[in-house]
Amino acid sequence: MDLFDRLDEHDYEKIVFCNDGASGLRGIIAIHDTTLGPALGGLRMFPYETEEDALVDVLRLARGMTYKAAISGVNLGGGKSVIIGGSRSEKSDSLLEAMGRFIEAMGGEYIAGQDIGTGSHDMAVLRGVTRHVSCVPHHAGGAGDPSHATAYGVTCGIRAVLEAVTGSDDLAGRHVAIQGLGHVGAFVARYCHEEGARLTVCDIVEEPVRRAREELGAAAVAPDAIYDVECDIFSPCSVGAIVNDRTLERFRCAGIAGAANNVLAESRHGAALMKRGIAYGPDYLVNSGGLIRCQEEVLGAPTDDARIFEKVSQIQSQTRSVIRVAEELGIGTEEAANRMAEERLHEARRVGKAWNTLRNARPA
Q1: How far apart, in whole angstroms, are the C-alpha atoms of residue 101 and residue 23?
Q2: What's this model's pTM, rounded to 2 decimal places?
Q3: Which of 195, 255, 297, 323 is the most buried (most CB within 10 A)?
Q4: Which of 14, 68, 80, 311 is catalytic?
Q5: Fold match flag (3-68+76-145 vs 148-341)
Q6: Catalytic status, residue 68
Q7: Would the pLDDT of 303 be above 80?
Q8: What's the pLDDT at 355?
Q9: Rounded Cα–Cα distance for residues 329 and 89 (Å)
Q10: pLDDT per position as a tens digit, 222-245
Q11: Residue spans per domain, the chain
């Protein structure tokens, strides 16, 4: 499939390739849909093996942000950006500033936030060259790291999936396997621990695993062994596409809900999970807490934790609604969530079209 086929497949609005020889920047910005507002999505830095891998990822992530905003009631569009490179070895202020200039040149069509390989400090660097950035730390005039809100929302999604498979949303005594202990995964582990869950964790970095063992009493396994852990909920909080042909038969869980984007390698894997009796909390709904939090920052609303967490807590009832619709229609939860998100987008387009028609019909 060539580039234009990829763009046409899901009606992407814009894609920008970013190159700066001086800083070594190679990046991509993708805007999927701005029906609900300017496109907001994280800036990911990852050592993709090929530029095609980076393109596939940014396109999938941008579309996921559109659906995330639509299903969670956020008035923003869907976009994403990536920088090709290792965040631990190749990141520099000059590279981030170069990316920021590309973002600024888009005039507010795209608003960046933190993601895998970037943090709030990096957003402060971007703020030096562009206004169109969220997740900026307090000392730089922003509202801070949204990871707590994302993790709290994931915990709400875990409760909803747990209730669907056990009849109760009580995490006490339940076993949660968490894949990835980065910005969000570590907080998910802590929230689940505080509610009495037993944890098994993994990460490619040893330090967060050590802390989880010592502070949360978690068991630890090798990264590839996490798929074989028998548990109530499997919570993917790292990279996407972890439900795939290779892993599908290995899962020993009753449900899946986590912070990772694009958990299903392909849509058909959602139906495969349903066939195996594994309940799935659609990733872009379960992990939408950070977006809910960022919307308040972008729109200039108060960003106190109590107010934000009250909004984020609705993820639990929204996830229950998606599971209920899926059961009523006999379809997978991802398909049910997609339909619900598309209904909101369709209605927004209809209202916008009607308003433009009315405005253009008025006498000058």
Answers
A1: 12
A2: 0.85
A3: 255
A4: 80
A5: yes
A6: no
A7: no
A8: 45
A9: 49
A10: 999 999 999 999 999 998 899 999
A11: 3-68+76-145, 148-341
